Amino acid sequence: xxxxxxxxxxxxxxxxxxxxxxxxxxxxxxxxxxxxxxxxxxxxxxxxxxxxxxxxxxxxxxxxxxxxxxxxxxxxxxxxxxxxxxxxxxxxxxxxxxxxxxxxxxxxxxxxxxxxxxxxxxxxxxxxxxxxxxxxxxxxxxxxxxxxxxxxxxxxxxxxxxxxxxxxxxxxxxxxxxxxxxxxxxxxxxxxxxxxxxxxxxxxxxxxxxxxxxxxxxxxxxxxxxxxxxxxxxxxxxxxxxxxxxxxxxxxxxxxxxxxxxxxxxxxxxxxxxxxxxxxxxxxxxxxxxxxxxxxxxxxxxxxxxxxxxxxxxxxxxxxxxxxxxxxxxxxxxxxxxxxxxxxxxxxxxxxxxxxxxxxxxxxxxxxxxxxxxxxxxxxx
Length: 381
Ligand SMILES: Cc1cc2nc3c(=O)[nH]c(=O)nc-3n(C[C@H](O)[C@H](O)[C@H](O)COP(=O)(O)OP(=O)(O)OC[C@H]3O[C@@H](n4cnc5c(N)ncnc54)[C@H](O)[C@@H]3O)c2cc1C
Prior knowledge:
With 381 residues, the chain is of the alpha+beta class. It contains 13 helices and 10 strands. It has helices spanning 10-26, 29-38, 43-51, 70-83, 85-105, 108-119, 234-240, 242-268, 282-310, 316-341, 343-346, 350-358, 368-378; strands at 125-128, 144-148, 151-158, 169-175, 185-191, 197-201, 213-223, 227-228, 272-273, 276-277. The strands form 3 sheets. Strands 1-4-5-8 form a 4-stranded mixed sheet. Helix 1 (10-26) runs parallel beside helix 4 and helix 4 (70-83) runs antiparallel to helix 5. The radius of gyration is 21 Å and the shape is globular. The structure holds flavin-adenine dinucleotide (FAD).
């Protein structure tokens, strides 16, 4: 039992244990290290998750899904994040960022065509809204989509798009009315092999098995039926998915914290300095206490937020708090973990990798600064 399951239903405990058991078999530590060394996508583990039905979790039953709630998903993502951040990212880019946008926004025929294939792991997805000149300001994009007969023609550039190099389809934002600001954006489901789509993988600090990409779109023709939601409704549709994305990023951060604590704890075995175990130095044991304080606080906020979302509450503030707390705690816990391990943590290996992975959390998926803007605005400031 890596972490406690108080407040989980029996089914959620089973889910957590089964998911961890599967990952331990298909993605053991030796395989994780090999994939990390090669910056290789965890394809076999992803397929195993599909085989055992995990990709079906969030989808509606009529498309072959299990219609799981927010807390169920948070339980799974915490487990994936705990086991390996790369497989967690592979799951989220395809199932949550791609798949959930199709379920929420696509025409019925598209849902029937795509969702069963996503659930089966036959079709993988990515999402592309960030551009070289617009990250947090996602409405400031320059990519244009112009109607031409039964198609739209897309031109522009995207950047930092996770797993696009392994995606079959990518959901892109593009301006359909360049003068209308937020209200001039639409969402498009684009075949990654379309003529005019050029994808280049970037060299990121962490999460090396789910790398980001830059993408050039040069006169890419997209059938009009592949628009997700109505024309100029893209911003509203994107916002709709944010609560789920943020609470799951929080759960992932918490899972990673638990693994960092475990790795640091294992390091203590037999490690001595000045003739005594380093665990007997209060300066070391207090670091463990601090790591657990940060982790438990972030976890309580994450599952509380998931419960609120499951109850249908407006949890925008709580979601932003959870995302901030979990990602910042992840980074602080990684820093403490590395300090405890000294040079052994700084060298290539598990702690070094988790330290690098943790740095992303406060930047992507809405930066900590943007989360604070959301919270302050809701406070009337
Ligand atoms: C590893 C990784 C994977 C990613 N994957 C994807 C992906 O799959 N798809 C995708 O579309 N994007 C992806 N992104 C991009 C991510 O969404 C952006 O990094 C994020 O939106 C922030 O944008 P930016 O990095 O351009 O920073 P900027 O928006 O340029 O911000 C720079 C700094 O200014 C601060 N700032 C900006 N605006 C404000 C404000 N209003 N108030 C206060 N501070 C502000 C930011 O917080 C930050 O500190 C990924 C990023 C990373 C690091």
